[in-house]
Amino acid sequence: MSDERKRPSAGADSDSDSAADRNGDAAADPVANTPGQGRTPEPERIEPAAPEAFGLVQVWWGDGKGKTTATLGMGMRAAGHGYRVHMLQFMKGGASSVDAVRGEYNAIAALPGISYENLGHYGWHGMADGSDEEDHEAQAQAGLERARELLGAAREADLETPFPLDGPADEGVHMLILDEVLYAADRGLLTEADVLELIEEKPADLELVLSGSHSEPSYLEDRADLITNVRKEKHPIDAGQRARRGTEF
């Protein structure tokens, strides 16, 4: 092998030196590249802002508890940065063990920047709980139309600018959560084509979050940027535990 082939290029020397410099800086100050440079974050006043990197499609499905909880937590985080968030719930009527007033609704009402609406009612489709199956379908269809309206409003708005924290969702939001929309499609109250159409209608800068369904929504595999399977390992409902205030509602 010739010396020319053994000798690293000048560019390689430069790259190595840069990497060494970065490693040296990190060794000297191990928190230099961490958020807040190692300082404990302090809460700040929430002011209207616009996200710099929104625009993905998220899917949360599975037979485990926590899909709505996770999306609400993410919505709260976005609202804490001053972004406008709205959650549209397709099927969240629940059962007789669930109170008419939900803890999350009270929290949302007290938090600027995030709002909700619920098109569900008592009962769940196909559960023989005394609720009307045709009514379930009508509610799901109403949710579909409302989702289209919200997407249309987002397309008309400038998503690169802040929105008033208490402004109506009909004037645009940065994150739209469609809670239980996948369950509605799984139950045949909506079609897979309906869900795909909602994704097609999404403006580029809107973060669209879809949740629900115990069955894998494989039709979204090539259309979603994030897919999370919330899997049940153990659930107290299997031992007869009913829904509890503060954890399930």
Q: In angstroms, what separates the terminal alpha carbons?
A: 72 Å
Give the strand content.
5-15%
Overall CATH architecture of the domain at 57-94 and 101-121 and 134-239 = 3-Layer(aba) Sandwich
The structural class is alpha/beta
Identify low-pLDDT runs.
1-12, 125-131
Look at the structure and give the CATH class of the domain at 57-94 and 101-121 and 134-239.
Answer: Alpha Beta
**Biggest sheet record:** 6 strands, parallel
The overall pLDDT average reads: 83
- Cα radius of gyration in angstroms: 23 Å
Specify the CATH homologous superfamily of the domain at 57-94 and 101-121 and 134-239. P-loop containing nucleotide triphosphate hydrolases
Which fold name corresponds to the CATH topology of the domain at 57-94 and 101-121 and 134-239? Answer: Rossmann fold
What is the H/E string? Answer: HHEHEHEHEHHEE
Task: Kindly describe this structure.
This protein is α/β, with parallel strands linked by helices and 249 residues long. The chain has a domain at 57-94 and 101-121 and 134-239: Rossmann fold, CATH 3.40.50. 34% of the residues lie in helices and 12% in strands. It has 7 helices and 6 strands; from the N terminus they run H-H-E-H-E-H-E-H-E-H-H-E-E. The protein has a 6-stranded parallel sheet with strand order 3-2-4-5-1-6, sandwiched between helices. Helix 4 links the parallel strand 2 and strand 3 (114-118). It is globular, with a radius of gyration of 23 Å. Residues 1-12 and 125-131 have low confidence and may be disordered.
